[in-house]
Write a structure and sequence with these properties.
Helix content: over 70%
Structural class: mainly alpha
Number of domains: 2
GO molecular function, one term: transmembrane transporter activity
Order of helices and strands: HHHHHHHHHHHHHHHHHHH
Largest sheet: none
Pfam families: MFS_1
Membrane topology: Multi-pass membrane protein
Organism: Streptomyces toyocaensis
Keywords: Cell membrane, Membrane, Transmembrane, Transmembrane helix, Transport
Distance between the termini: 22 Å
CATH architecture of the largest domain: Up-down Bundle
CATH superfamily of the largest domain: MFS general substrate transporter like domains
CATH topology of the largest domain: Growth Hormone, Chain: A
Strand content: under 5%
CATH class of the largest domain: Mainly Alpha
Number of strands: 0
Shape: globular
Amino acid sequence: MSVAGLRRAVRESVSGLPPAFWWLWISTLVNRLGGFVATFMALYLTLDRGYSASYAGLVAALHGLGGVISSLGAGVMTDRLGRRPTLLVAQTATALSIAVLGFMRDPVAIAAVAFLVGMASNASRPAVQAMMADIVRPEDRIRAFSLNYWAINLGFAVSSAGAGFIAEVSYLAGFLIEAGMTLVCAVVVFVKLPESRPSGEDSPEASAAGESVSLLTVLRDGRFMGVVGLSFLIAVVFQQGYLGLPVAMGEAGFTPADFGLAIAVNGVLIVVLQLPVTRFIEHRDPRHLLVASSLLAGYGFGLTAFAGSVAVFALTVCVWTLAEIVNAPTQTGLVVRLSPVHGRGRYQGMYTMSWAVAALVAPLMSGFVIDHWGAEWLWGMCAVVGTVAGLGYGLLMRRLPDETAETVAGEGARAAEAVPEVKAC
């Protein structure tokens, strides 16, 4: 591709999105750039504090449990209090709890504060996704979600590289830097982002119009809960890249450096391919995309059973990374299409919970299967789960509602918020 063609492709990828989206995008990027704690938490507990690997696993599980619990509560807050207040509360609480965690020395206190960090850090996700759906036009949402996912991975790649250097100097510095950068995110939200919640949400008028949404409403939405279940299955599969893969490579005689080399392919491909792949898929049938990405994910991990060298492991990572690039924005866009305007927070909270639960279940599943039957069974199960998820998406997404079919109230609210849009950014 020529330089002019590359510039045109970049311009088309970022044009037409409102300024509020870009401030939200910057907030996401800054937050991920400071994501040091998740990277070196296990090393901090085992090497610096001298605790056992089992204790480090317990702390990680409590952190994940906090995220599970906060998902639904944050979804309700997003609808009732608004997107902006929920973001401010979540990010401020995250910054404070991470700073406190850096000073904890007692094992019970560390575990308790790690649980609070998990709750606070996960609480912002339903609000971010609901706000993005509010301020971006339906036809641009896949592109917007893809850009946000790209920022998450770019920030994670940079922070992962920096975490090692910071840990060599001071683990406490890592905690404090992440706390400070999370506070910067809260400042960006406070100064630059207006509330985007459609007017009348959870009001008597909304109830009278039949637009009030409760968690019971979400649970009764059969098709959406089916998507949540399929999302859980796919999340369990993707988690194996960071759980089952390093264990399996270690048992096969490969070094941590070998695993690092193989998994680095994931981050590099997402940063390089996320935007061009999104340009290719953004106007295509999400049903076909989710079926294809589910099969790619399942069989990408399934092929790991035949890997005997770092190069082949890296090749399998390429396969399931392509599935991840397609699946992430498409699935988030599907959640928005299935969510009523006045219940986006609760629906996004339920969707977020599926990934949080998967983060708890996946370690237990991978460890049990590898210990009792071997890694080959784990990769075979991934292929089966991917196939089941693909069939499920194919069945559930028949007669998918039109993405432009939003309520008049929702469109009016977006205009009333007076969020300016520009043709290019």
